[in-house]
Amino acid sequence: MKVFGTAAAKIILFGEHAVVYGHPAIAVPVSTIRAAASVDLSHPSHSTRLQVFAQDVDRWVSLDESQEDGLSASIRRAISLLGFEPSGMAAAIHSDIPLASGLGSGAALTAALVRAVTLANSQYMSNETLNAIVYETERIHHGTPSGIDNTVIVYEKPIYFRRGHDLEPIRSAAPLMLLIGDTGISAPTKESVADVRRLYEDHPLEIESVLNQIGQIAEMSRALIESGDLLQLGRNMTDNHHLLQELTVSSHSLDRLVNAALAAGALGAKLSGGGRGGNMIALVEPTTKRAVSDSLLDAGAVRVIQTTVT
Ligand code: MEV
């Protein structure tokens, strides 16, 4: 019998990169974009390979031999942390989440698979255990992940997050209508995180100051979300983007989309996630949503997705 496990994508509203250095950050799930894994332990044609279909990707991952790339390594790591012998398992993962785009594809693929394997074995797993397993696999993708991506994806709720602390769920006083604009350029988070680390080592005082300012914006924005002050929240997003530019993690494509969103009336806009490519987000109102979406597409976004945080 085939069983399924799923997990949502995520976006970071405030604080990416600074969160790696212990500053607060805010992330929300995007429940309409998901990874779904199917597992069948009684399939007649047993396989030790697993097929992954993500946006523009259709590939096999070997479960019993060494395949060098991060996705294969993290899936094997998850299976081995489960203490499960995969031979004889027929499995596939279908995902709407583009890879290496700042939407948490790696963490969502692994979370969906672990959920399906656990169910196929008639076992129960707490979110806490699942989060710890997905964090371990994130280390293969990123090297030094803060843990925010796996946490928001596993718990699937808006969170205020500080590395090494328990997550704090947050509630928005007013719906946050967001557009997610995709540059279509894949950019591994591991590289941008490593570049920020080098920049920090070369210019510790300047970068420390930028990271502190990002942390302060995230802290202040939590209160704005909880009080429903969307105007100031939008300004904070744009300020956060400028600080991310100082960390060198933006790009021409991201800046073009951010500027296009602002020119079309967005309350604020910023890159989201590791940067360099991937996705940006814009805070919009019902009256500006259409114009901002059209403007993002005109400025080169390959897709625009709407999500509302409540
Ligand atoms: C990636 O979604 C967020 C980063 O801050 C990395 C991390 O927190 O591990 C860039």
Write a structural description.
The chain is α+β, with helices and mostly antiparallel strands and 310 residues long. The chain has two domains: 2-161, Ribosomal Protein S5, domain 2 (2-Layer Sandwich), CATH 3.30.230; 172-309, GHMP kinase, C-terminal domain (Alpha-Beta Plaits, 2-Layer Sandwich), CATH 3.30.70. Helix content is 42%, strand content 25%. It contains nine helices and eleven strands. The protein has helices spanning 70-81, 105-120, 127-142, 148-155, 189-202, 204-227, 230-246, 252-263, 289-298; strands at 2-14, 25-40, 49-54, 57-62, 90-95, 159-161, 168-169, 176-182, 268-272, 279-284, 303-309. Strands 1, 2, 3, 4, 5, 6 and 7 form a seven-stranded mixed β-sheet that branches. A four-stranded antiparallel β-sheet has the order 9-10-8-11. Helix 1 runs parallel beside helix 2 (105-120), helix 3 runs antiparallel to helix 4 and helix 5 crosses helix 6 (204-227). The chain is globular. It starts with a strand and ends with a strand. It binds (R)-mevalonate (MEV). (R)-mevalonate binds at residues 12, 16-17, 19-20, 102, 142, 145-146, 148-149, 189, 193, 273-274.
